[in-house]
Amino acid sequence: GESVGLHLPTLSVQEGDNSIINCAYSNSASDYFIWYKQESGKGPQFIIDIRSNMDKRQGQRVTVLLNKTVKHLSLQIAATQPGDSAVYFCAENRNSGAGSYQLTFGKGTKLSVIP
Amino acid sequence: NAGVTQTPKFQVLKTGQSMTLQCAQDMNHEYMSWYRQDPGMGLRLIHYSVGAGITDQGEVPNGYNVSRSTTEDFPLRLLSAAPSQTSVYFCASSLQQGQPQHFGDGTRLSIL
User: Fold this and answer.
1) CB contact under 8 A, A43 and B45
2) How many other CB atoms sit within 10 Å of the CB of residue B11?
3) What is the tens place of the pLDDT at every residue in B67-84?
4) Which of A14-18, A42-46, A97-101 comes out lowest in average pLDDT?
5) Which end of chain A is more exposed for a tag (fewer CB within 10 A), N or C?
6) What is the greatest pairwise CA distance in chain B?
């Protein structure tokens, strides 16, 4: 079954506000997580990643938080802009043994920015 | 540097027809993979390759074949298309397995 999921399928935010997109995972053995952004008609685009030995990682206007206790991941976008409108996926890069990794995607959250 | 290039962008097939979806990358990446994306299902791994000459099955491999004769190319073959294979197909690559992947823009496939 799906081990990586999202709490909300859609999210609408006012331009300039901060956005928070959540993700839950079930496999405590997962050691690496990635957030992707997918614009309409395009392939997923890497945003930011985080390893399980970290709680927080910051990029340009984006922050990923990892709470291993409750198996929860979040993506925070500061000062959301119209260009941030897209579907956001979290992905769990699970080590399945013998150096083999499988990337498992959540179903995605659609972020709509209101001008 | 074109990244990951997928062709064709759109295709309509009849049930039972065969076709090959092309994927090429110019980043000298060892790892390549194919996903399908269906509404409400996210992206699901079909097949992957950790290097030339090596392929393996993902989560949903039935009905699809792959080969990896060169580092650059990773074609996906549908031998006998079925309506259940209507989907958007994405090819991705990364320097090595376990690293963030670069995705192509997809092939939108409809099977009637």
Assistant:
1) no
2) 17
3) 999 999 999 999 999 999
4) A97-101
5) N
6) 37
